Amino acid sequence: MRCRRSAKPGSFGCRRIAGPGDSVDPVLTGEGRSLTRPLLLLTRPVEETDTSRRTAEAAGFDVLVAPLLRVEPLQWTPPVRLPDSLLFTSARAPGFAAVHAPELRAIPAYAVGPRTAAAARASGFALEREGVADGNAILAAMAADGRRDILHLSGLDTAPLDIPPGAKLNRVPVYAARLLDQLPESVVDAMRNETIFAALLFSARTAARFRHLLTVAGNAPADMRIVALSEAVAFAAGEGWREVALAASPTLDAALVAARSLWQCSCHGR
User: Fold this and answer.
1) Which pTM was predicted?
2) Whose CA is closest to 149, among 248, 72, 83?
3) Which domains does the chain have, with CATH numbers?
4) How far apart are CA 228 and CA 73, in angstroms?
5) What secondary structure does DSSP assign to 98-146, as a single string?
6) Which of 47, 206, 78 is nearest to 152 (CA)?
7) Could you report the per-residue pLDDT of 55-108, keeping only the tens digit for each?
8) Where are the alpha helices (DSSP H) in 123-249?
9) What gap in Å lies between CA 88 and CA 116, rounded to an integer?
C-alpha cells in the first residue's frame, strides 16, 4: 500500500487507497506497547449500528457510534398494473418493499450491486441480475433484456438515472433516510479530547452533514482523519482534513482495511 501526503490545492491531504491484500500487522509505540485497536467513529444509520459495530470490533477496532441518519419506512401504494421488472438501487429498499407489497416478490428484480442483490434475495425477490454499483449500467442491462415497464423502488433521496429509449421508469420511494441534527455529547467530548483516530463516512449526504456538525460542535476538519467509502464521499466531505483514506471498494470491510492501513501509516510517519 502506498502512503502519500500532499499539500497541493484541491487535494484531500493524505490519501491512501487500501485493498484487501494490505498488511495489517500490529503497530508498536516507542515503549514497545502494541496499539492494534484504534478508536473509530462509526456514522452508519441507527438501524445498522449494531451489525456494523460488531464487524468493526471483530476487525480489531474500538468503536464510538455517531449515527448521521435515521431510516424510516414511507407509506406507498404499489401500481395497479404490475410492471415487467423491478429495480433496486439501495440495499435498504428490498426489505421495506417486501413487507409492504409481498406480491411484488415474484416480479424479475435487478439490483445495482452485490450488497443490494444480497438484500433482495434475503427479502424473497426473484433476482434476475446484479450489477457492479452503477445505476445507469444496470438500467441499460434491463433495457437490453427487453424490460420496458420498470418499477424503481428506492429511497426518498436517490441519484437520477438515464432512462433508456423505449423504457418507462416509475420511481416509488419506499423509505426515507433522515439526516440527524447533532452529534452525541460523548462523541463531541471524544473529539475535544482527540481520542478518535478516524471517522468512517459512507455516503455523500452523511459526509457533508458530518463536516457541518463537526464545525457546529467547535471542532476543525484539520483535527480529524476520515475514511471515505469512495471518491464521491471524500469530495462531499470537502477539503482540509488531517488525513483521508479511501476504501478500495464501497463496503464496510474495505473501509476497515483502509482504516487499519491509515493507522499504520500514521504511526510509522509515512
Assistant:
1) 0.77
2) 83
3) 15-68+180-268 (3.40.50.10090), 71-176 (3.40.50.10090)
4) 27
5) HHH-GGGGGSEEEESSHHHHHHHHHTT-EEEEE-SS-HHHHHHHHHHTT
6) 78
7) 999 999 999 999 999 999 999 999 999 999 999 999 999 999 999 999 999 999
8) 135-144, 185-192, 204-216, 231-237
9) 7
